[in-house]
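Problem 12. The chain below contains 232 residues. Write out its predicted structure in token notation.
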Amino acid sequence: MERRGSASRNRAQISVFIIIAVVIVLALVLLTFLSGKGYISEYGLTTTDKISRMIEDCQRLEAQRAIEVLGSNGGTLKGKAQYLQHIAKTPTIEEVSEEIAEEIDRKLLACLEDLASLKALGYEVHKSNPTTQVDIYPDSSVITTAWSIKLTRSEKTLNLDTFKTIIEDVRIVDYLKDTQTIVHEQPEQKVDLTVLRERNVNIHIVAVSDNTAQYTIYRQGIPKEFSFMLLY
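Solution.
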């Protein structure tokens, strides 16, 4: 009886060892498969995750920079805006979105040049030109970039094509409404600030000449300010 019990225990132990060995082999096979597909990288993240995070961080940074510059210029990235009272056309959301998108596209190409670490690992980088769409809402902006990026190394190929980030607390819509009010809905050569104060904004006005003043509007959020020249 004792021998039979010992033999049963030995068989059970052997079975356990076999199961453990099978599990280890399967794990190694799965690990090799995922590594070959690019899901596991030398950095602990997937290679695609690494690039996506880098590009989306660049998206966010360049979008925030563009929004701040656009605010400092009063609605454009092409220099300080000057509006002739009651006549000048103030920017639309569509025009502002297009300017920001074009600026992001230019800066993203420079961001991708920072992939020296991947090139050092033997990857070849093939890319198209990015095409960004900026959707501006009353309290946020959504940045979506269609951009084909292909990485190859030996028989491994990684493909990325879309990058997206959301920036909260964007007040461009409100700033454009404020500018519209100042340029088109106020008496000649003066501004009634009553309406604007009701919107919980601060305004700083500096006379530049007899017929020109610089208006700077402040709101909580981004951009921090919206500044332009008003010609009477």
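Discussion. The helical segments are 2-36, 47-72, 93-112, 116-120, 172-184, 194-197. Students who got a different answer should revisit the alignment rule from Section 12.3.
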